[in-house]
Amino acid sequence: MRTITKIIIHCADTPANMDIGVEEIRRWHMDPPPRGRGWLDVGYHHIIRRDGTDERGRPHEQTGAHVAGHNANSIGVCMVGGKGKSNAAEANFTRA
What we know:
This protein has one helix spanning 22-30; strands at 6-11, 14-15, 46-48, 54-56, 74-79, 82-83. The chain is mainly beta. The protein has a single domain (6-83), classed as 3-Layer(aba) Sandwich (Lysozyme-like), CATH 3.40.80. A hairpin with a 5-residue loop joins strand 3 (46-48) and strand 4 (54-56). The radius of gyration is 13 Å and the shape is globular.
C-alpha cells in the first residue's frame, strides 16, 4: 500500500466554457503522440468537473502521473478550467 503524504491540485488549462471530465483527459493522456502522451491511464486520481462532480481517475493504490518527482506519495487532483480568453492563466473555477 502506498503512503500518501500530499494532495497535489492541478488545473486542466481549459477555458471556462469547456466542460470536460475524466474520459476526455484520459484520451489526452492515453492517445499515442502527437495527439496524446501515450500513457497507460489518466495521470490524475480525481478530476473535478465544472459542476463540482468528482470523477475518479486512477485508483489511489496506483502511482499517478501528474508531477515529476512527487507521484509516488501523492494523490493528483485536476480541476477543469484555468485558462482565460487570452490563453493566460485565469482562476475561472466554479464555486462548485
